Amino acid sequence: MEPITVTADADVFTCNAYLVLGESPTLVDAGTMPGVDEVIADALDEAGVDGLDRVVVTHQHRDHVGELDAVLDRFDAPLYANADHPRRDAALGDGDEVRVGDETCTVVETPGHADDHIALVGEERLYSGDVVVYNDGAFDDGSFGRTDMAGQSRETLIESLHAILDALPDTVDSMYPGHGDAYRERDGPDTVRAVIERATERAERREPKYPDE
């Protein structure tokens, strides 16, 4: 079953928050959309699923965790995160495994955009957070997370992009990023690996991503 973008109808700035149903219903990121917990509840009810097994955050920038408390309060689900958080139940680090829906994903630490950033690499899906996206207004068909704000590093982000490529199985055929559109190989001309390689090449130019960077 395809991940559901529960923030798709947001009229505020938010990340893509993904509800992944299956054997182990999981929410990847919570976003900032007021009422997202209600959207999640409706989707779970429609699927005949009783609650969430866990919430995983790719990193703790506000656009990814603004509604986290509301979600945790509503579903009483354990929180999995890399960095410390008052409500964290399980710490995730490089090489750890976590069940997301019907798929076991490997955690890859991917700092640069955020110190605590992680990506989740499965056999078929990549949940990439903000480190690599498909389109974001700066680039189409392969872009990378911004690194122009305090505490961010382009060089570290480039290393993280290579870490994802090193960990990526050839069987991965879809990418679910924190912003922009999801990318599925069946919908486009490229493999997921090719999209990430293009994003990496663009990042390695060391040119400003945005005019005011």
Explain this structure:
The chain has about 210 residues and is α/β, with parallel strands linked by helices. It has a single domain (about 5-205), classed as 4-Layer Sandwich (Metallo-beta-lactamase, Chain A). About 25% of the residues lie in helices and about 25% in strands. It has 5 helices and 14 strands. It has helices at about 35-45, 60-65, 70-75, 155-165, 190-205; strands at about 5, 20, 25-30, 55, 80, 90, 95-100, 105-110, 120, 125-130, 130-135, 145, 175, 185. β3, α1 (about 35-45) and β4 (about 55) form a beta-alpha-beta unit. The longest helix has 14 residues, at about 155-165. The chain is globular and about 45 Å long. The model has no long low-confidence stretch (mean pLDDT about 95).
Draw up the topology in text.
Elements: E1 4-5, E2 18-20, E3 26-28, H1 36-47, E4 54-56, H2 62-65, H3 68-75, E5 79-81, E6 88-91, E7 97-100, E8 103-109, E9 118-121, E10 125-129, E11 132-133, E12 143-144, H4 154-167, E13 174-177, E14 183-184, H5 192-204
Parallel strand pairs: 3-4, 4-5, 5-6, 10-13
Antiparallel strand pairs: 1-2, 2-3, 7-8, 8-9, 9-10, 11-12, 13-14
Helix pairs in contact: 4-5
Please describe the structure with a list of short key phrases separated by commas or semicolons.
single chain; 213 residues; alpha/beta; Metallo-beta-lactamase, Chain A; six-stranded mixed β-sheet; 5 helices; 14 strands
Brief summary:
The chain has helices at 36-47, 62-65, 68-75, 154-167, 192-204, and strands spanning 4-5, 18-20, 26-28, 54-56, 79-81, 88-91, 97-100, 103-109, 118-121, 125-129, 132-133, 143-144, 174-177, 183-184.
